Each structure stands twice: as structure tokens, then as C-alpha cells.
Please model this.
Amino acid sequence: MPRCFASFALALTGLALFQAGGVAARTGDAQGAVRQETARGLVRPLRDIEARVLPMMPRMQYLGPEYDPVAMAYRLKFISDGRVVFVDVDARSGNIIGQSR
Model:
């Protein structure tokens, strides 16, 4: 019985690593897409977007960005007093297209 449990545990560990690799690949795909689109002049660099949005979020801690290559949009994440705020920005124009709390 212990041998069966060890095989099961090993299979679960392999599955978890496989799924984690898939998440990393998707994240890498988004990073690669934004690099290519920035180099081709299709989207604004993240630093330009941050320079525009961060001053609008006083007293908020900036947690970082995500990029959606399908929507061609950045999502910037902020937190203050336990409240999380997302600011969605059109990567082409740099305009804020949404904010959620």
C-alpha cells in the first residue's frame, strides 16, 4: 500500500509542476508579445504607461503590471489599506479604459 501512495503522490506532484509550467509559459507569451509589439511601435512602453498612471494613484502602493496581448491593454495593480485597485490602460494610446476596486 505505501508503494501505491508514493506513486500517487509522485503523479500529483508531476501534474502540479506541469500546470505551473503552463502558467509560466502563458506569462512568458504575454511578455514576449508586449516586447514585440513595443519594438514594432504598436504599443507604448510600460515605463511610459507607469509614468502617466502612478502619479494619479497617490497613497497607493504599486504592486505591478500585467499585459493582455489580445486586448492590447495593461492592467496595473495597486493596494492601500487592504483595498486592491486595478487600473486598465489601453497599451496603444496610454488612455485609462477602466478602474475596478
Remarks:
- Residues 2-39 form the longest helix (38 residues).
